[in-house]
Design a protein that fits this description.
Length: 254
Amino acid sequence: MKEQDSGVNPVKDFLFNSKKGFCEHYATAMVLMLRSIGIPSRIVTGFAGGDLNEYGGYLIIRQSHAHSWVEAVIDGFWLTFDPTPVKITEKPSSVILLIDMLKMKWQRYVIGYSLYDQKKIIRAFNVFKDFPTIFDLKIKSKSLHFIIFAIIIFSVVIILFILYGDGYKKRGRFATRQYLSVRNKLGRLGIKVTSSLTPNDIELKGISRGLSSNFSNFIRLYQEIRFGGRKMNAKERLEFKMLTRRVIKEINSL
């Protein structure tokens, strides 16, 4: 955008002249219009969305995720409105996520090597230094029990991760695909879906537009699979797919 004259009112210029701007322009204009008709409202700024890195188990927040939206009091409740909803995009490829994870580890454990990390390594070496005395029976029994217990716990965690970790990710991806296929259809009902809306928020909006209990069941199952770690056999996966199709068919018919 062109640099604006400091003597020009930015809101008036946006509404009546340029009619182009960033999310802050739209949010500010909406708040001023709501307040002009007596509706309490406010601008909220922060970050919307993010990219989940499944390799590192963290959420990537970029400068491009910075966003502004509106909150207004409707029927006694603060509700969220987004005049410039965030565009839903495909997540980065596995290669990009893996590279990002390696960069993060490098920054965390090499560039950002801290006093806390140093203490952890020293403590680890102190433990291994005592191992020869174990066989000489010069170590106290409590310390020996602790070391054995720690090794057992660590081994169990590794085994559980190998057996179930990948399956959990696959279940999550399967549920997310079904969820997105339904969510992307909700625009037909006039529902503006943004990344700030939770599945429960979307469920309420869908029910208010006339969707049946199939939609509520779909949202509930999605959350149980995606966030509750619910396991599904082949029959249950097929039933969930069929429920997804019924919900989409219902949306298309309204």
